[in-house]
């Protein structure tokens, strides 16, 4: 790490002067955590002697305490993670572009629906102007049709905006967000694809799951999209096998659940399908980079390994188990607060969020 300037280590104020301005809140939060718990870990950028901003991970923990001398001894490390971080961001961007390309047909169909509605409303309005049904132009009828045009335009714009945001590299800092928004965003992208091939999606959210998490909503959406697309592929493959071997149809189903668990404390997201489960022969390798059981044209082996990395960066974990007729992927994230609220709200969806 020869790029460090030793002046950085003079005192705390000197160090903070070398931290990227956008990352100062991250450092302050880590210092606050250290004062409260005796340990801290934070990733942020510092300026090199060359003027370049480089990513590091800064870790520190109390290792000894001497009450008699009112002294505490801390041990820590600063690790250069710049190249790894940049490589991970490039891989994540590649995966997002692959996903966007794969979903293009479904999204085109989704956008085509409001366009057709707009066209019909506009044609009806023009007909009313040129050939009034009651002998004179009815203003309320024209206003109604124009209202349809506006609402459908907004619907198409939301779809396009979300695709644009999803495809963009997340340069902003991590922030607190609602996991339900990430689930809704993921379904907004995968919904058309699932709906078009007849896969039903059911979302179950407990009232006590209204707990924010810290990270990038866009990246959590990417994880959920990967899991839903894997579920889609597994269901489609099982459909073919059952039809060929037994001559019967499979009603595809994906269940997404969200709840807050107290022991151990975590916000838990599960994506469950009825696609037959993960074969035991590859179970231990599914999170390995570039490993895939799919044909070359359908899989890159990036999805689950990137998902594993994204969730790990958020301080959480991701695991898989087989249950009933399919696989269950579980994502556990650290929440910011608990709740004693109870009850379950279920929404039945066909490939889209409520």
Overall average pLDDT? 79
Low-confidence stretches are: 337-354
What's the story with the biggest beta sheet? 6 strands, mixed
Determine the strand fraction and express it as a percent band.
15-25%
Q: Please list the strands of the largest sheet in the order they lie side by side.
A: 9-10-8-7-5-11
What's the CATH H-level homologous superfamily of the largest domain?
Histidine kinase-like ATPase, C-terminal domain
The CATH class of the largest domain is identified as: Alpha Beta
The Cα radius of gyration reads 25 Å
What percentage of residues falls in helices of 4 or more residues?
40-55%
Number of DSSP helices?
A: 7
Approximate shape: globular
Report how far apart the termini are. Answer: 50 Å
CATH topology of the largest domain: Heat Shock Protein 90
Structural class: alpha+beta
Total number of strands: 11
* SSE string, helices as H and strands as E: HHEEEHHEHEEHEEHEEE
Overall structural domain count: 3
What does this structure look like?
It is a single chain. The protein is an alpha+beta fold and 354 residues long. It folds into 3 domains: 6-80, 2-Layer Sandwich (Beta-Lactamase), CATH 3.30.450.20; 83-169, Helix Hairpins (Orthogonal Bundle); 173-349, 2-Layer Sandwich (Heat Shock Protein 90). The protein has 7 helices and 11 strands. The chain has helices at 12-17, 24-37, 82-130, 139-167, 179-196, 217-245, 303-313; strands at 39-47, 53-66, 71-80, 175-177, 200-206, 213-215, 253-262, 265-273, 317-323, 326-333, 344-349. The strands form 3 sheets. Strands 9-10-8-7-5-11 form a 6-stranded mixed sheet. Strands 1-2-3 form a 3-stranded antiparallel sheet, sandwiched between helices. The chain has a two-stranded antiparallel ribbon with strand order 4-6. Strand 2 (53-66) and strand 3 (71-80) form a beta hairpin. Helix 3 (82-130) crosses helix 5, helix 5 (179-196) runs parallel beside helix 6 (217-245) and helix 6 runs antiparallel to helix 7 (303-313). It is globular and about 95 Å long. Residues 337-354 have low confidence and may be disordered.
